[in-house]
Amino acid sequence: MHRYARLVPLLLLLAFVSAAWASGLTHHLSWAELARHQAALVAWTEAHAVVAPVLFLAVYAVVVVLSLPIGAWLSVISGLLFGTAAGGALSVLGATTGAIGLFLAVRSAVAPALAERGGMLIARIRPALERDGFLYLLAIRLVPAFPFWAVNLAAAACGMRLLPYAGATLLGIMPTTFILASLGDGLGGALAQGGRPDLGVLFSPGVLLPLCALAGMTLLPVAWRHVRGWRRGPVPRPAALPDA
Fold this sequence. Notes:
Shape: globular
Helix content: over 70%
Radius of gyration: 22 Å
Number of helices: 13
Order of helices and strands: HHHHHHHHHHHHH
Number of domains: 1
Structural class: mainly alpha
Largest sheet: none
Low-confidence stretches: none
Mean pLDDT: 80
């Protein structure tokens, strides 16, 4: 019975995800809808200076837990409603909080089963995760080409530790998130006139190449450790003592 109890968080998560997709919620979230309600949203945010940021953070966290593909959309809205600095910070905190919630739910249900069935494989990759998991995940988070939800699930399934996961997520998503928030910060007038933010800017050479370079620099300590290990070669075995 105890074995199945650990599946409860994952089953509840799957139920909520299914309900969110079945409701068609994501189909009603569009730039046209945002433009239609922009004035009301901005006015409400300004009138509720304390409640609005807390509510936005909570909504962002729930969206990430449910793995709904609207994280970039919310990051842009954060800039529109709160400005680049405050909006970007709220988006980073919301995304990190949601990622931790998803990580814990999946790890409690999936990681033990993987450890039982793929013991040899997990045993081989776990030392690398324990030593360099933070750097690996940080490099992946810095590059926006990797789906956020997929990385969350993979890290949890591999049994990565929580603190390195949370730290790498918090730091790794900052550049992309603040870029999206800055797009939203200057979007107000253009959105009212039918303009749309170009999220493809994240994949333009001027943005993507520096992020890839930063990710590569993050992995330099790992690469150097491997190079140093190759130079040293295999550790020689001690010679056998002669028989007395």
